[in-house]
Amino acid sequence: MTVLRDQHGRSIEYLRISITDRCNFRCVYCMPEQGLPWLPKQEILSYEEIVGIVRELAPLGLRRLRLTGGEPTIRPDLASLVAQLKAVPGIEDLALSTNGVKLPQMAAALRAAGLDRVNISADSLRPERIAAIARRDLGFAPVTAARAALEAGLDPVKLNVVVMRGINDDEVTDFARLTLDFPVHVRFIELMPVGEMAHLTDAHIVPSDEVLARVATLGALAPAEGPRRGNGPARYHRLAGAPGTVGVITPMTHTYCGSCNRVRLTADGRLRTCLYGDHEVNLRDPLRAGEPLEPLFRQALAGKPLAHDLLQLRVGGLKALSQVGG
Ligand code: SAM
Ligand code: SF4
To answer: Which domain CATH number covers 20?
Structure first.
């Protein structure tokens, strides 16, 4: 078997699949309040097409998948997609990124279908503030969602917090305290400049070193191993005696491109080899024409950049991270 490697020798074993560009939230840093021009239904990959792509990539070394969006839980019958993907030979690990609104109802069925783990986005623990940041009041309760995920047996359960100065940075210690009570992994993410919401970054970014200094006011904080599965770009720490960990994801202040092992599939079937920039290959049309995909995967990886140019604040053609699954 030839394992897929990009032109810099990084092996590619992780695919993030955006299954919809739509969302039931309008997070201030992600998309405009009126939404985005959504993709027409016929342009979106069917579940059968997504599974077809994964079947072709798995023999080349693909091992791990993440379903994301937009908001993946708003697509009907998500559990059937989970079951079909988990059944593809070679796929060892299947994760979900969600805003968590529907998790209390869906966690058990998704776990039963084969979902291994979940990342829940939660930018506040206060109901009014959650509604203000998401610009929708859907009754999202992060702790309830996390509990439902833990009770369903999803492991690990990560809570992703985008920290914004003057908006939710006063809750850093409240989030970190959750790791003392629950075996959850709270990850603080630096705000990134993307699309129409890019202007927020200058005024509201909080560097992760500052976030960790605030967490350390709660007690001794030591570097820690990350969760058993799914170690991505986060750097982890643990408060003394805590069952959970605190992580930071630092796209703005430290780059981790050198160990990047991921590619992304957009909801309309474009394979993107880097979050930023415009390196992508259309897989949907060749797939629908019955053409082989392997040469296209190789072509895409040959163009995977060594590092993204986020640090220079050149943000490519993206309107929102929801278009590529974050
Ligand atoms: N709707 C799901 C969710 O919110 O988890 C999945 C898609 S969302 C685009 C994936 C991740 O991207 C979320 O954790 C979200 O917080 C993050 N994200 C979106 N825009 C961002 C930005 N400008 N800066 C940092 N993170 C961002
Ligand atoms: Fe939706 Fe996730 Fe973007 Fe929020 S971050 S608007 S939940 S896609």
So the answer is: 3.20.20.70
